[in-house]
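Severity: low
Component: inverse-folding endpoint
Summary: output formatting inconsistent between runs
Steps to reproduce: submit the following structure tokens with default settings.
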């Protein structure tokens, strides 16, 4: 199979290219070539998707499969479809679980969950507030052009080597330092993610099998308590969680999910009870393989150490801030039915 990866130099797109090369496929990566390098064994064609004619170096070439990881711009997706779609045997577009409109209802499926309204033509394609709507507009462009040859892959949080968001890596890094650490909300809440290697492997498998579907790419939901316990054991740490309720965290200005001053992966419930409880039975049946959490933790911790465990983070609270919050919680005692680790 001759696979074209639109990208191929960083994170997921690079993992896709590397996986395809490892399986013996011929791989071409199309990128500017300034954000990173393509994997050994892959060829680089320099393109600039910001330019209307930026994909011309690929014009006239037939590919057995194309993988597009375009992050925000339906315009770039439409340009790629116009230049490459007619000669592509199969097309994968990497979208996002952020296209869903209902974040409160647990257990939703990709084939029936309500969706946001797609971003209209002319929308600001740099506006992060429109992220899910822009992705949905791009999905629709792919379906309209290549509906019988298209796989729409909707990942949740992608984690592992190359992830610079700190949303997953914060936790093995923090736990590796030991001591009592702040655990957000309730151990009964749930979390979902996907290892970048598992997502990449599924995308290559989908191209090989010419899968036509729209499916989520995340692991089955895991309870926070189990997730942190297994993560702690995988790190080999004696760290102990102190479970602090979401009301206390919100009162003290701790942000959920991501960003400076946040506790990564934590989301308030019930308003986000469905965001990390997607039903992925259909995805697993269609070839998505989820490796053991311990493998993902080991890879993520190795990546964290390469980046520097004590670096300034895009996401997460500092150790000083954590100590302040734990002290303030201890002064309140354990009133309100909370659990302390």
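Observed output (run 2 of 3):
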């Amino acid at each position: 199979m001759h696979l074209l990866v639109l990208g191929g130099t960083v994170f997921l797109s690079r993992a896709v290219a590397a996986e395809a090369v490892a399986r013996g496929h011929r791989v071409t990566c199309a990128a500017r070539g300034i954000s990173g390098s393509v994997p050994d064994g892959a060829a680089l064609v320099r393109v600039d998707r910001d330019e209307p004619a930026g994909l011309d170096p690929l014009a006239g070439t037939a590919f057995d499969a194309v993988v597009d990881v375009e992050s925000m711009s339906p315009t770039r997706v439409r340009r790629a479809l116009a230049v490459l779609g007619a000669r592509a045997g199969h097309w994968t577009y990497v979208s996002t679980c952020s296209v869903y409109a209902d974040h409160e209802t647990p257990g939703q499926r990709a084939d029936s969950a309500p969706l946001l309204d797609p971003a209209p033509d002319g929308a600001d394609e740099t506006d992060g507030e429109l992220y899910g709507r822009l992705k949905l507009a791009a999905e629709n462009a792919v379906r309209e052009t290549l509906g019988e040859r298209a796989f729409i892959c909707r990942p949740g949080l992608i984690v592992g080597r190359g992830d610079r968001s700190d949303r997953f890596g914060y936790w093995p890094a923090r736990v590796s330092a030991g001591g009592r650490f702040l655990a957000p909300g309730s151990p009964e809440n749930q979390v979902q993610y996907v290892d970048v290697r598992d997502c990449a492997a599924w995308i290559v498998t989908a191209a090989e099998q010419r899968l036509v579907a729209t499916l989520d790419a995340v692991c089955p939901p895991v309870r926070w308590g189990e997730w942190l316990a297994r993560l702690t054991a995988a790190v080999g740490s004696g760290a102990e969680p102190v479970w602090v309720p979401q009301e206390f965290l919100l009162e003290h200005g701790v942000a959920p999910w991501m960003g400076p001053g946040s506790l990564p992966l934590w989301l308030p419930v019930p308003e986000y009870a469905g965001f990390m409880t997607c039903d992925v039975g259909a995805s697993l049946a269609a070839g998505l393989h989820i490796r053991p959490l311990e493998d993902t933790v080991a890879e993520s911790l190795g990546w964290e150490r390469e980046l520097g465990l004590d670096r300034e983070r895009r996401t997460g609270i500092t150790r000083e801030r954590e100590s302040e919050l734990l002290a303030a919680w201890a002064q309140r005692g354990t009133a309100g039915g909370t659990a302390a680790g």
